[in-house]
What does this fold into?
Amino acid sequence: MKPFIGCDLGGTNLRAAIVDVETGAVLHQLSIPTLAREGHEAVMKRMADLCLQVIQSSGSKKEDVGGIGMGVPGMLDLEKGETLFLPNLPGTWPHVPLRDTISSLTGLPTALLNDVRTITFGEWRFGAGRGVDTVAVLAIGTGIGGGLVVNGQLHLGLGGAGGELGHMVIDFNGPRCGCGNDGCLEAHASGPAIAAMGMKSVAQGLTTSISELCEYDLNRITPKLIAKAAEGGDAIAREIYEKAGFYLGVAACNICAAISPRCIILAGGVARAGNLLLEPMRRTLRERVHIMPVEQVEIVLAQLGENAGVIGAACWADQSIGRTRS
It folds into this structure.
């Protein structure tokens, strides 16, 4: 079995890794700045060069590699291999032929997938969801991405948009989300939403150690800082994470009603808060789901860390390129 390259297109950095798709081991990897403001043509050239460079620096040859899988942060047309809307990259990349461009520049077959779906696929194959037939992933950071594996198959839906769990509506009278809708999970429990609750508490003059930790500079308030306050016993900070965990728990209730997963995985930087989010999520799930054996649903943290995306992208390339060839 040939290894595959997993490549992650980030707003700040590009990462490429050679992955053993039978074991999930990352054999060799490189990272360079994206320099996204140079435009999509320049970025695609840098991505292709990085993929060839990771092969060369690993001591391998191009013919030793089965292909390239790319995790892309936004909406895609998987059939055409195009980007449709990448909200965090300058120009948003409408109808950019990413798949065919990378394949042409590298001489290797290439497959695309949304970046959180690559995390989902990686965690299901070799991480916290290994051996489980139905899994949901919530990746909590600047936004909330998601992904679903149902009955052993990555669920793609129309155009690969299936699994956008951060945009399920959990309060139809809730705040405006970046997607343009009101009351999405992302608007209640993402990193910026948690930080905003901390800023509001300090601005209102509430008694909280968040004020001292940020030295009364609201711009320094982050989910990590609020988690530190919560872990130190601060009641306001704990209440903020209790709210975010409750909203994530409501989302988990909806996921359970829809697909009855055996495992719900929290990934992303904000998930490092651990039990501050997991405990209210689990409690909400137990209290509000009565139509399935909810005690059999695990809510756990992701295991693969920053490698989940490149591992999942490589495994997706292995699966999809192999299927295309057959």
User: Anything to note?
Assistant: The mean pLDDT is 95. The two ends are 16 Å apart (CA to CA). The first helix runs from residue 40 to 57.
